[in-house]
């Protein structure tokens, strides 16, 4: 018995190089693709997202305008105009979110009362359990109460 036969045992004489190489290439490709997609997702999620959702609108508008200064090569006048527009619109958006949130809570309460009138107590209990599971799932994915980050 040759030295190679002793070392490789039952694999001696078989062509194991190509499948092993192919497996290594596939594994490496998966790692590269996974790292790249994680990097892109992180970059997209933090592009304009405020670090603190309770941050004042003026501070947020200024931060976004300053971040865009270098990326868009903005002049000081453009930065000031962007800051003003962002602050105004972000203030309106915040007011709309607050109003919409209150209306949604009211509508959800109305819907719950209507569904409770249709279902038996056992069915309603299961319905509430399904809703609670869906809410927990949304929180785990970071979607908050009314969508992304809310």
Question: What can you see in these coordinates?
Answer:
With 150 residues, the chain is mainly α. Helices cover 76% and strands 0% of the residues. The longest helix is centred in the middle third of the chain and has 43 residues, at 76-118. The chain is flat, with a radius of gyration of 28 Å. Residues 46-51 have low confidence and may be disordered.
Strand content: under 5%
- This entry's quaternary arrangement is single chain
Average pLDDT works out at 78
Characterize the main sheet.
none
Shape: flat
Question: Using only CA atoms, what is the Rg?
Answer: 28 Å
Distance between the termini: 71 Å
- State the total count of DSSP E strands: 0
Q: Helix share of residues?
A: over 70%
* Helix-strand makeup class: mainly alpha
SSE order in H/E notation? HHHHH
How many domains? 3
What labels would you give this structure?
single chain, 150 residues, mainly alpha, 5 helices, 76% helix, 0% strand, flat
């Amino acid at each position: 018995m040759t030295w190679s036969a002793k070392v490789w045992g039952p694999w001696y004489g078989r062509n194991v190089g190509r499948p092993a190489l192919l497996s290594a290439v596939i594994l490496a490709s998966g790692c590269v693709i996974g790292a790249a997609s994680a990097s892109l997702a992180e970059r997209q999620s933090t592009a304009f997202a405020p670090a603190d959702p309770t941050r004042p609108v003026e501070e947020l508008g200024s931060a976004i305008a300053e971040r865009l200064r270098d990326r868009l090569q903005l002049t000081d006048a453009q930065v000031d105009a962007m800051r003003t527009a962002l602050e105004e619109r972000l203030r309106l958006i915040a007011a709309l979110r607050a109003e919409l949130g209150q209306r949604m809570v009211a509508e959800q309460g109305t819907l719950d009362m209507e569904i409770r009138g249709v279902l038996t107590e056992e069915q309603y209990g299961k319905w509430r359990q399904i809703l609670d599971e869906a809410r927990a799932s949304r929180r785990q994915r970071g979607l908050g109460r009314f969508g992304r980050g809310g």
